[in-house]
């Protein structure tokens, strides 16, 4: 097995199916971390799915922030131009620059922004029950754990050094706080106007920024509508 953070290649490296993420052959931990390092791809797919089915402006803004964060990462990489720690281990990597780590910057942006959203955006609800607070804390711990594991995977798999991952996490966290502030103070007041555009109405784009707990709201509305329709159907059948 390859030593963590050292450029030694005693065994061949396998590639995760349909990707260029590689791990040492026969290394179960490396195999698991290789899949974890694909989290940004899964997150992007999840965002696109949410946008297609929900068409909510804040979700679109969140994805826009992630894309902007990636652009900042590309710019910093091409300015610093720091090489990868073990380029001979991964000949299929399309980018030779590695400072800061794009995976680390992405996942920390996602985690920190989600954390801020949970505690600063959804706190507007008056529902302070124990279970309501518990699931936020548990979700925050899961987000923090995912960010740490993805960052660690990039060092373990010899794609980055600890400093490259650390700087990526710092830049991603800073960009998340900045984008959250920009969304709350600049974009959110514009959302009702944007949702009223003819193009937005055509694509059924909506603004739910004034609803503190959208999950509970959608559940309550759909349940009430289902009961109302059931009641009307029962009246017609009489």
From TrEMBL:
Gene Ontology MF: a single term: dolichyldiphosphatase activity
Bilayer-crossing regions: 32-53, 106-122, 134-153, 165-182, 202-221
Gene Ontology CC terms, in alphabetical order: endoplasmic reticulum membrane
First-listed, main subcellular location of the protein, grouped into a coarse class: endoplasmic reticulum
Keyword Transmembrane attached: yes
Keywords carried by this UniProt record: Endoplasmic reticulum, Hydrolase, Membrane, Transmembrane, Transmembrane helix
Domain Phosphatidic acid phosphatase type 2/haloperoxidase: 59-180
Presence of keyword Chloroplast: no
Reactions that this protein is recorded to catalyse: a di-trans,poly-cis-dolichyl diphosphate + H2O = a di-trans,poly-cis-dolichyl phosphate + phosphate + H(+)
Biochemical pathway: Protein modification; protein glycosylation
InterPro entries, per the entry: Dolichyldiphosphatase_PAP2 (IPR039667), PAP2/HPO (IPR000326), PAP2/HPO_sf (IPR036938)
Family: Belongs to the dolichyldiphosphatase family.
Protein role: Required for efficient N-glycosylation. Necessary for maintaining optimal levels of dolichol-linked oligosaccharides. Hydrolyzes dolichyl pyrophosphate at a very high rate and dolichyl monophosphate at a much lower rate. Does not act on phosphatidate.
Name of the protein in question: Dolichyldiphosphatase
């Amino acid at each position: 097995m390859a030593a963590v953070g050292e450029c030694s290649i005693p065994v061949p490296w396998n590639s995760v199916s349909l990707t260029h993420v590689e791990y040492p052959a026969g290394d179960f931990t490396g195999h698991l971390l290789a899949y974890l390092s694909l989290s940004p791809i899964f997150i992007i797919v999840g965002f696109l799915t949410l946008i297609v089915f929900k068409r909510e402006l804040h979700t679109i803004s969140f994805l826009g922030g992630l894309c902007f964060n990636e652009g900042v990462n590309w710019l910093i990489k091409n300015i610093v131009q720091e090489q990868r720690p073990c380029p001979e281990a991964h000949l299929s990597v399309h980018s030779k620059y590695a400072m800061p780590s794009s995976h680390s910057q992405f996942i920390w942006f996602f985690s920190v922004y989600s954390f801020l959203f949970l505690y600063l955006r959804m706190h507007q609800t008056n529902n302070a029950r124990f279970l309501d607070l518990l699931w936020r804390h548990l979700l925050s711990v899961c987000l923090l754990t995912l960010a740490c594991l993805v960052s660690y995977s990039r060092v373990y798999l010899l794609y980055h050094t600890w400093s490259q991952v650390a700087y990526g996490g710092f830049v991603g966290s800073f960009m998340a706080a900045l984008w959250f502030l920009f969304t709350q103070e600049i974009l959110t007041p514009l959302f009702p106007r944007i949702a009223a555009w003819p193009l937005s109405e055509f694509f059924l784009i909506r603004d739910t920024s004034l609803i503190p707990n959208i999950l509970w709201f959608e559940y309550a509305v759909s349940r009430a509508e289902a009961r109302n329709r059931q009641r009307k159907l029962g009246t017609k059948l009489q």
